[in-house]
Amino acid sequence: MLMLTLVFISANFAIIAAFIYSIAGDPITNLHGSMTWVASYSAKTIFLFSSALLVLVPLIIFGFKVIARRSAMRFTIVFLLGNLLLLLPSRNEMFIGFLALSLLVGVIYHVVKASTLDVTLRNREGFIAKTILFVPLMILLGRNMFHSLGAIVPLIIAVSLLLAARQCSSSLPAKSAFRSLLESISILPIVGVSASVSSLIGSELHASLSTGAFVFSIVAGALLFELSLRASSAKHIYGSIAAVLITVLACANLLFSLDVTSSIYCFLSGAGLVGFAVFSERRYVLAFGSITVLASMAFGVISLIDGFAFHNWFSLAGLGVLAIVFGSLIEKHGGAIKVGIGKMRQYFQSWDY
């Protein structure tokens, strides 16, 4: 009953917030009449808010005293602050997005801090108490979706789901089946975050489809690689998905566009894969990164060949000189090059997969 009480406290704050917004906020014209709460005058709303606080605040304190125990005061302050943010008479997408992101970071920080300091939060009641702290955030985001649905609100929702899944999975045992399930489900909010970031950049900067695909692949690849580093199982599957996604999108982008911008995007994607491969010591990531880099370099070589005058005697002479110099270097340092290749092969064999 106390858990349900804490949840419905946020619902009561949302109703009070609707009355405040009907007085101080912008007029609402796109909602059905059954969804519009209107206060007759401000004095009644102020009295309603003041009297509600006298009832709701003691209920918050008592509820968390029972289910959060030693962390009751910390949770009370965080939960009350989140509910008070619901009262702000604004539905501006950018403002609500920034507000929700700040609240999300603050709640996660205090949840992690309390979980570290208070071992009593590791039982069922503690888990529910930590979950209840996110209720004002869910109301804040869900309420704003009725007013505007641009890129900010879906982005914050996807980030919230991703961080919630990450926090829940990291608190479970390594061999837990539920942890593996949460890690696999995390792919959905990863796609949501990547699509929202790509859409946001595209709408704000009027970027091309090529830029949007590049941003999507980089964000999704980075989040999937982060998931592969902390996953308890199937970590190489997530890394493989990230490598394949970045390589396919970069090469397809280059193939369909055939311009310098796509070539730069392709090279940056491949360089990022190679860098992560060296960091994580994964051969398959290095292979995909090399393919992506070679694809971008092939575009440069083809462009150079298209502009090269093969019928000119000086051009052919220059190619001959380069071939002679290159062959001489291989002949002179062939032994050292072979030894170096052997060492690199042994080094890569020590890598994982």
The total beta strand count reads: 0
The residue-averaged pLDDT reads 80
Please count the helical segments. Answer: 14
> What is the global morphology?
elongated
Largest sheet descriptor: none
State which percent range the strand residues make up. under 5%
Ranges where pLDDT stays below 50 over 5 or more residues in a row are none
Q: What's the N-to-C terminus distance? A: 52 Å
Computed Rg = 28 Å
Q: What class, by secondary structure content?
A: mainly alpha
**Share in helix:** over 70%
Order of helices and strands: HHHHHHHHHHHHHH
Task: Describe the oligomeric state of these chains in a short phrase.
Answer: single chain
Provide an overview of this structure:
- The protein is an all-alpha fold.
- It contains 14 helices and no strands.
- Helix 4 runs parallel beside helix 7, helix 7 packs antiparallel against helix 8 and helix 10 runs parallel beside helix 12.
- The model has no long low-confidence stretch (mean pLDDT 80).
Short account of what is shown:
This protein is mostly helical. The protein has helices at 2-24, 42-67, 72-85, 93-117, 124-132, 135-144, 152-170, 177-185, 187-205, 209-230, 235-257, 260-280, 283-306, 313-349.
Annotation keywords:
single chain; 14 helices; mainly alpha; about 350 residues; elongated
Topology:
Elements: H1 2-24, H2 42-67, H3 72-85, H4 93-117, H5 124-132, H6 135-144, H7 152-170, H8 177-185, H9 187-205, H10 209-230, H11 235-257, H12 260-280, H13 283-306, H14 313-349
Helix pairs in contact: 1-2, 2-3, 3-4, 4-6, 4-7, 7-8, 7-9, 9-10, 10-11, 10-12, 11-12, 11-13, 12-13
